[in-house]
Amino acid sequence: MLALACALASPARADGGACAEVIADRIQHRYEAVKDLSASFDQTTRVATLGSGAAAEPVEAKGTVVFAKPGRMRWAYAAPEESLVVSDGETLWIYDPAAKEVQRLAAGGGFLSGVAVQFLVGEGNLRRDFRVSARDCATPDVTLTLVPKQDATYEKIELSAGRESGEVRETRIFDLVGNVTTIRLHDLRTNLGPPASTFAFDPPAGVAVIELPESPQP
User: Fold this and answer.
1) Owning domain of residue 102
2) Of 126, 173, 123, whose CA–CA distance to 153 is shortest?
3) Residue 90 in 3-state DSSP?
4) Strand 180-190 and strand 168-175: pairing?
5) I need a labelling partner for 109 at 20 to 30 A (CA). Which of 56, 74, 85, 153 fits?
């Protein structure tokens, strides 16, 4: 513990790999003990524009999210429209009630919002799976940049986490075409033991089911 504290406190090392490794290890240690996680979220997506020179207006959304080992998640969007993304670890459903359709595909690493926070329930390993760098090491919140070591459906992820606690406050994912999705977590609770039904989905009557090919793995 003394070595960790010294690495964080030393300004000379704040811009190098030592700070990034210490914070990544602290995040990893914090969330490996987490079996499930529930939170409210705010999401902002900035869509890349080509040729027009004018920046597109960001798309705002909010709702609640539940994650649980192994590989289960439920994103319930409340605004700007109600929608649902849910996976039991094997099948991923993306439900649009207004359109009366649901997309079904094999669960995997291709769904970006899941990738951005799946490590919060101890899935994956930050230092094994990413090249990690850091900035703002002298401030209470540290920003880590995670560049995947293997081919992925995104360019990089940024995490903002408490320097001492390792608690993640915000994730930002940059996809391969320049879109940026930021997710801020609020009222985060862990180890509540959500029932299996939380991650189940049965298409309502009259809803069209669209089969999609399996998402590419990172």
Assistant:
1) 26-49+57-211
2) 173
3) coil
4) antiparallel
5) 56
